Amino acid sequence: MLRTLSRRRFADLTEQEILGLAISAEEDDAQIYRMYADRLRADYPGSARVFDGMAAEEDGHRRKLIALHEARFGPTIPLIRREHVSGFYARRPVWLIENLGLERIRDEAERMEAEAGAFYAKAAARVADSRTRALLGDLAAAEAGHSALADTLIAEHVDDTTRDAEEREAHRRFVLTWVQPGLAGLMDGSVSTLAPIFAAAFATGDTWQTFLVGLAASVGAGISMGFTEAASDDGQISGRGSPFKRGLASGMMTAVGGLGHALPYLIPDFWTATTVAGIVVFIELWAIAWIQNRFMDTPFLRAAMQVVLGGGLVLAAGVLIGSG
């Protein structure tokens, strides 16, 4: 609350402060585009050159704004940034965007341009000086037209061969960072918890106790798999991406896989709960087979045989142990 009250309202800014805010915003955006370019350069050199071009465009905007400020107010530019203005659009922290994939980076850039264009249009309506109004209006139009600039830069730096190669690399990264760890977690959570959950169910006949066993097994397995995946490979040599992302995908999907057939035991009737849990297990195993076929290029029938057979054996073991 105190932080919000300490900010200036946009409506209260002077024309000099509006120019200062625009200059600092252009500096920030140029730096973000350069960071994107550096982030992409090793794997997506064509797209990196596109962001280099967009950073150069933002530098041109900044120079025009500085020249106008010097002509009207002198060389001393007021230090005012986005975070100093209440309700002003903000940029995401570096640690939230540095590991974005190629498509997410492109989407983020489009959002940045739309927000900048809206700011310049609003700023142009707030100033009285004709030169300032004209420049801000031109910059609003330029930001709105940056999608055309991006298309021009893409046509210049990203030909069909480069685009195909970048899309293949982006898909590979997505599979290695999210799909593979998530699939491993889903398989572990779905299959490894079958025996303890169904053994508890048939040993006790108590749905609540079975749910508690399933909850503990699922959460414990999720935590274990998440930390194991994150600690096993930092991604620097293997190229498998952020260990945090991989650990998150593996841990969450492990827990989900186990909870899928633990939650039905919240149903008080034993046989109803067990029947629903069995249906969920069937869906989980076929979902695993589909993911393997869709993303890992495993023939569907082979994946189905492996997963369903393995899961069926574990399920049978749990039922037999619990019944005995």
Distance between the termini: 62 Å
Helix/strand/pairing category:
mainly alpha
Arithmetic mean pLDDT: 81
Largest sheet: 2 strands, parallel
Number of helices: 13
* H/E topology pattern: HEHHEHHHHHHHHHH
Task: Please list the strands of the largest sheet in the order they lie side by side.
Answer: 1-2
Unreliable segments of 5+ consecutive residues: none
Principal-axes shape call = elongated
Beta-strand portion reads: under 5%
Computed over alpha carbons, the radius of gyration is 28 Å
Whole-number total of structural domains:
2
The overall strand count is: 2
Question: Can you give keywords for this protein?
Answer:
two-stranded parallel sheet, 13 helices, 1% strand, Ferritin, mainly alpha, 324 residues, elongated, 2 domains
Describe this structure in words.
With 324 residues, the protein is mainly alpha-helical. Helix content is 78%, strand content 1%. A two-stranded parallel sheet has the order 1-2. Helix 3 (45-73) packs across helix 7, helix 11 runs antiparallel to helix 12 (270-295) and helix 12 (270-295) packs antiparallel against helix 13. The radius of gyration is 28 Å and the shape is elongated. The relative contact order is 0.09.
